[in-house]
Write a structure and sequence with these properties.
The complex is a heterodimer of chains A (318) and B (445). With 318 residues, chain A is α/β, with parallel strands linked by helices. Chain A contains eleven helices and ten strands. In chain A, strand 5, helix 4 and strand 6 form a beta-alpha-beta unit. Chain B is of the alpha/beta class. Chain B has three domains: 53 residues, Electron transport complex subunit B, putative Fe-S cluster (3-methyladenine DNA Glycosylase II, Chain A, domain 3, Orthogonal Bundle); 250 residues, Dihydropteroate synthase-like (TIM Barrel, Alpha-Beta Barrel), CATH 3.20.20; 118 residues, 3-Layer(aba) Sandwich (Rossmann fold), CATH 3.40.50. Chain B has 17 helices and 17 strands. In chain B, a hairpin with a 2-residue loop joins strand 4 and strand 5. Chain B is flat. The chains are: A alpha/beta (318), B alpha/beta (445). Chains A and B meet through helix 7, helix 10 and helix 11 of A and helix 8, helix 9, helix 10, helix 11 and helix 12 of B.
Chain lengths: 318, 445
């Protein structure tokens, strides 16, 4: 019996966007990173439809993390106090393609650092590395509105990816990101309808859809990843069938979420294997799972996990 | 693919004899399409029509069962490409290799380490479910001995991996009552292997290097009377393997292409444990019915098994935790008492942040039918009454001597009514539970 043809074609595709501005483009980045562009589901159609290869953004925190497990602290122990050196290490030693500066330290319940601190960190990291940056607030609306516009200004013209904006808090950061020439992360709490709504709200303010990346929230393996997984698959299908409000590339936060998992950080669990192996493995597993659903930028933390995931990506997206 | 009433009508005698109780053959065909009547109700239907209708009613992907007794596993029977469309039915079976080059204590140790790959998550036992005995030695005798040793250890379903019909027959002579999966027949050995499979009533994997060659091979094997087939497409790279698995799944489900309407098996036996786990997880998500691994590292197996559990979870049914009081750390009568809902995602997030606080606490899980705090509150499944009932039912008064209850910040609005209903002092916790460690350390005294 001859094998029938089954290739499914779609009319739409995921938006393609290029982060980072080099000298010619008015910035100081030594390289740019292009993401998106998929014209089919993961492993659907031909290899030409897969779009750009997914990239890893390694997390650098603005202030020394207090609650990281030892296994995660170890590779960074000499640089945790210095975001610039930390970023440099990620790029030069661990092959980070993007650096995500996560401003945890500005949160009022954490270190409550001010805008001047955040601006200084941004400048330090911009100076230390040539890769494009992701600039990510602390999640406290009031504090983010106070600090992130200044962070945006400090990186003006660098074509960073900045966020996040939510349904309830999008105006100030959207306006400033537009003015400073950045890309924007729209954020929804594992709810595909809210995700679309935030995209509509920001585009109503005149922010171009082609400059948006969506963050649907991430659940770690074993902690709700199936919700994130299905939302990402549904978003990809929506993009492919021509829904312009859902055609954005996708970012996910694997580092933070997977290191919260008991399986990653519990030290006293002999039946589960050595924590030094287990932590990075949980991060790998979470990232690989989400890659099957279709994601474009993955925030990660442990260098061993980054190496394994990069190796996987290089096998699939050639 | 389901036939329409008209498709069925064309296969009926068209005599309108009314013996089936329907006024016309067309009415009968329509009723049959809706599965309201059985084909047997028509006394004059032809053999040809019966076969065609049965074939159309068969599931697009066959279920294949191997192993025996408690060790029996089943794969296949999938109906959708994406889990949100309906759900994935038969969770991927993870199998671990045992080489027949091992003998004596080495063999015993390897079998033990495979059998011990068992874990528990959310009250469910998960683990490796099959052992793949590999005929690395090339010798039928060694293969038969290793297979017999694995069978005697008796914990898991068995997969016999050899290209040699002679070795297969030798191993099967000692293990046939375990109903192993035979892997694999190639185009060269198809006849001999199909013969062995048929005689012993075992399912057979078909191995080829292209989708076309594989579908020819399964037709050949099926023609010999073996119905339970597993697809083993050998690809030069992981990338090709994954693209092929997606294509075969689509051919089976969307085109109802029978020669590929079977579950699949993949081998991930090279590289480090980390790399094997990464590859295996992609194969679990994208359509491999069995994944055979070489690693016996628990740290690598646990995430793979968790991935199987998560991807095959029913998307219509929220995963729930049992409503009761969960002690975190070793709480005592002075420890904090807080509540959350029984939606697993909600509970695990709270649990993880309470653990992070290093303050031993009690978490009371209120039954909200698997919904999150805000959803449960707006659906009236979380109110002063359900919380008070849960407190009584799970005797929280006996666990702590204080009378202070920490409630999720999102339902601060229920404080007043809850205080009235329970006579406990209500303390409003943070809205985001990532703030719980700080809250417990600083606000709780």
């Amino acid at each position: 019996m001859p094998v029938p043809k089954v290739a499914e074609r779609f009319t739409g595709s995921v938006n393609r966007l290029t982060l980072g501005a080099t000298k010619e483009d008015g910035g100081t980045r030594s390289a740019t990173v292009t993401v998106g562009g998929a014209r089919n589901v993961v492993y659907g159609g031909s290899a030409a439809d897969t779009g750009e290869k997914p990239v890893i953004a390694m997390d650098v925190l603005d202030s020394k993390p207090e609650d990281w497990p030892d296994v995660l602290v170890e590779p960074y122990k000499d640089v945790l106090d210095s975001p610039g050196d930390w970023a440099k290490k990620c790029v030069e030693e661990f092959g980070a393609e993007l650096i995500c500066v996560k401003f945890d330290g500005i949160h009022p319940d954490k270190n409550d650092r001010d805008a001047a601190h955040a601006v200084k960190v941004t400048e330090e990291v911009l100076k230390a590395v040539g890769v494009p940056l992701v600039l990510w607030g602390c999640g406290n609306d009031e504090k983010d509105n106070e600090v992130m516009p200044k962070v945006s200004g400090a990186a003006k013209g660098e074509k960073c990816l900045i966020g996040t904006v939510t349904e309830d808090n999008y105006k100030s950061l959207t306006a400033i990101a537009l003015a400073d020439g950045h890309y924007l992360i729209t954020h929804a709490p594992l709810d595909i309808n809210i995700a679309k709504q935030v995209n509509i709200l920001t585009s109503d303010m005149g922010f171009p859809l082609e400059r948006i990346v969506t963050f649907q929230a991430t659940g770690a393996l074993g902690y709700g990843i199936e919700y994130a997984y299905s939302i990402q698959e549904r978003q990809r299908l929506a993009a492919l069938t021509g829904d312009k409000m859902m055609a954005m590339p996708v970012i996910c936060d694997v580092g933070y979420e997977s290191w919260r998992a008991k399986e990653a950080k519990l030290t006293d669990a002999p039946g589960w294997g050595d924590p030094a192996d287990r932590g990075p493995m949980w991060e790998v597993a979470t990232a690989i799972c989400l890659l099957q659903a279709g994601v474009d930028i993955i925030r990660m933390r442990h260098p061993r996990a980054v190496a394994t995931v990069k190796n996987f990506i290089s096998q699939i997206w050639t | 693919m389901a036939l329409t009433g008209l498709d069925i009508f064309k296969l009926l005698p068209k005599t309108n004899c009314k013996k089936c109780g329907m006024p016309t053959c067309l009415a009968f065909a329509m009723a049959l399409a809706q599965k309201r009547v059985k084909l047997d109700d028509c006394p004059d239907v032809s053999q040809e029509a019966k076969e065609k209708l049965a074939a159309a009613a068969a599931p697009p992907m066959r279920k294949v069962v191997f192993g025996s007794g408690d060790n029996q596993v089943q794969i296949g029977q999938e109906t959708v490409m994406f889990r949100h469309e309906e759900k994935f039915y038969n969770p991927t079976v993870l199998a671990v290799t045992v080489s027949d080059k091992l003998t004596g204590d080495d063999l015993k140790k390897r079998i033990e380490s495979v059998n011990s790959l068992q874990f528990e998550r959310i009250g469910t036992k998960i683990g490796a479910r099959a052992v793949a005995v590999i005929n690395d030695s090339g010798s039928p005798d060694s293969f038969a001995q290793a297979a017999a040793a694995v069978k005697d250890a008796g914990d898991l379903a068995l997969i016999l991996v050899t290209q040699s019909p002679e070795a297969m027959a030798a191993a099967l002579a000692k293990t046939k009552e375990s109903i192993p999966l035979l892997a694999s027949a190639t185009p060269d050995t198809a006849e001999a292997m199909a013969q062995i499979a048929k005689e012993n009533g075992c399912p057979l994997a078909a191995q080829a290097e292209s989708i076309e060659a594989l579908s020819d091979l399964t037709e050949k094997i099926e023609a010999q009377g073996v119905e339970d087939i597993v697809l083993n497409l050998v690809a030069p790279s992981l990338r090709d393997q994954l693209y092929n698995l997606s294509k075969m799944r689509a051919l089976a489900l969307k085109k109802v292409f029978r020669p590929l309407g079977y579950p699949t098996i993949s081998f991930v036996t090279d590289d480090s444990a980390d790399t094997q786990a990464a590859s295996a997880i992609s194969l679990i998500c994208k359509y491999s019915g069995i994944v055979v691994l070489d690693t016996v590292e628990p740290y690598a197996l646990l995430p793979m098994l968790t991935a199987v559990m998560n991807v095959f979870a029913d998307p219509q049914k929220p995963v729930q935790v049992e409503p009761k009081v969960y002690p975190i750390g070793e709480p005592n009568e002075n420890s904090p008492m807080m509540f959350t809902t029984n939606f697993s995602l909600t509970y695990y997030t709270v649990e993880s942040d309470v653990e992070a606080s290093r303050i031993p606490s009690y978490i009371l899980v209120v039954d909200t039918e698997g919904t999150s705090v805000l959803t449960a509150y707006s659906g009236d499944k979380l109110n002063e009454k359900t919380v008070a009932d849960a407190m009584t039912k799970h005797s929280v008064e006996d666990l702590v001597k204080h009378r202070k209850l920490i409630i999720p910040g999102y339902v601060a609005v229920m404080s007043g009514k809850l205080e009235e209903a329970t006579n406990w002092e209500v303390m409003v916790g943070p809205r985001e539970c990532s703030m719980l460690p700080k809250y417990l350390q600083e606000v709780w005294k």
